[in-house]
């Protein structure tokens, strides 16, 4: 059971599709919270409440030891019938969040309850789901509640969900540029790279700043051991196109198991593309771009879906890809995925979960 504690009064209205909405800047009127309290038999009844701030002690564990995790997914409004609303593969987000919790020494949130909580909150805020190509971004998170600066895992936790109307993650559609980070690393095998935890993203902020100073918009991450093999692009998975062959870094233990990544691999195989998952040397990628063997490159994730990478920055060198244009394979895969997500195309995989 989920308690609905909504106020009687009406609050702010959803934005229109024509309004400029920076990604994540606007939140809906309500949120969902559910606390894990070991002295009260564990997970409490989830509650939908007005969006509000949390009041926490300065000694709260959340501020000191990085024991925080989150997820990201979207709710969509069908293009063929705007009353048809659905989520995209929420069961996979539930599974990944439970895995992240385990890795970070937290109490996993029940997977079935995760999906039900999202459905009930989105039902309340359904008017905020922008028409395609917009959506409603969903951010489930979990934080520790214990107080005290002694180093330990918390015993109590708070799971919560906030929502944000979403348009394009990147302002332009021509693709993004990425800077090859050859010194700093995102994560190492045996570390927290497979978990969607706050620390992984915090450690990426300095390299992101460096990338922007070099003229790029994102960072291309290499492995932590040899700084030789490609891992991710920004906070996204990355794929390389060799005509009709798609190559992507194998999940090595330091790469996030992207749900968009897995979806693209399935779609690509069904469209007849050859897909190979393996270790990929950055110097070979650069050489293959320059000789024309590598024809396209893109990053993929929930927020951006698929974004073409139009050039690499390596130290002081700029290396254009496909004349800095979106390639045919990238566009084909993006359209197929978006058409499934927005209800234009049939869903042969059962990825769409109806909300109403």
From TrEMBL:
Protein family according to the UniProt entry: Belongs to the class-IV pyridoxal-phosphate-dependent aminotransferase family.
Gene Ontology terms describing biological process: isoleucine biosynthetic process; L-leucine biosynthetic process; L-valine biosynthetic process
GO molecular function, one term: branched-chain-amino-acid transaminase activity
Keyword terms of this UniProt record: Amino-acid biosynthesis, Aminotransferase, Branched-chain amino acid biosynthesis, Pyridoxal phosphate, Transferase
Name assigned to this protein: branched-chain-amino-acid transaminase
Transferase keyword on record: yes
Names of required cofactors: pyridoxal 5'-phosphate
EC number(s) from the headed UniProt entry: 2.6.1.42
General function of this protein: Acts on leucine, isoleucine and valine.
Modified residues (N6-(pyridoxal phosphate)lysine): 196
UniProt keyword Methyltransferase, yes or no: no
Family annotation (Gene3D superfamilies): 3.30.470.10, D-amino Acid Aminotransferase, subunit A, domain 2
Reaction catalyzed: L-isoleucine + 2-oxoglutarate = (S)-3-methyl-2-oxopentanoate + L-glutamate; L-valine + 2-oxoglutarate = 3-methyl-2-oxobutanoate + L-glutamate; L-leucine + 2-oxoglutarate = 4-methyl-2-oxopentanoate + L-glutamate
């Amino acid at each position: 059971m989920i308690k609905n504690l909504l106020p009687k009064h009406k609050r702010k209205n959803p934005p229109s599709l024509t309004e400029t909405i920076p990604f994540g800047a606007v939140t809906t009127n309500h949120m969902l919270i559910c606390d894990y309290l070991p002295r009260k038999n564990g997970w409490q009844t989830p509650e939908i409440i007005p969006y509000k701030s949390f009041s926490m002690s300065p000694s709260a564990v959340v501020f000191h030891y990085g024991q925080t995790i989150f997820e990201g997914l979207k709710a969509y409004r069908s293009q063929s019938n705007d009353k048809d609303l659905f989520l995209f593969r929420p069961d996979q987000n539930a599974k990944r969040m439970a895995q992240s919790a385990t890795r970070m020494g937290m109490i996993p949130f029940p997977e079935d309850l995760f999906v039900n909580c999202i459905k009930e909150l989105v039902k309340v805020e359904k008017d905020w789901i922008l028409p395609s190509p917009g959506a409603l971004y969903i951010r489930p998170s979990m934080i520790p509640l214990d107080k005290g600066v002694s180093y330990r895992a918390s015993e109590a936790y708070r799971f919560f969900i906030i929502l944000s109307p979403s348009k394009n993650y990147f302002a332009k559609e021509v693709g993004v540029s990425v800077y090859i980070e050859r010194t700093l690393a995102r994560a190492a095998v045996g570390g927290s790279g497979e978990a969607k935890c706050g620390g992984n993203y915090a450690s990426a902020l300095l390299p992101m700043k460096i990338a922007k100073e070099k003229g790029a918009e994102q960072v291309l991450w290499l492995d932590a051991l040899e700084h030789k093999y490609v891992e991710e692009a920004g906070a996204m998975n990355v794929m390389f196109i060799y005509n009709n062959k798609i190559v992507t870094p194998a999940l090595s233990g330091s790469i996030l198991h992207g749900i968009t990544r897995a979806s693209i691999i399935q779609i690509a195989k069904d469209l007849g593309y050859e897909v190979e998952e393996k270790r990929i040397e950055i110097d070979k990628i650069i050489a293959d771009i320059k000789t024309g063997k590598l024809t396209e490159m893109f990053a993929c994730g929930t927020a951006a879906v698929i974004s073409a990478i139009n050039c690499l920055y390596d130290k002081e060198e700029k290396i254009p890809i496909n004349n800095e244009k979106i390639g045919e394979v990238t566009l084909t895969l993006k359209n197929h995925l978006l058409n499934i997500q927005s209800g234009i195309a049939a869903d042969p995989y059962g990825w769409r979960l109806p909300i109403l």
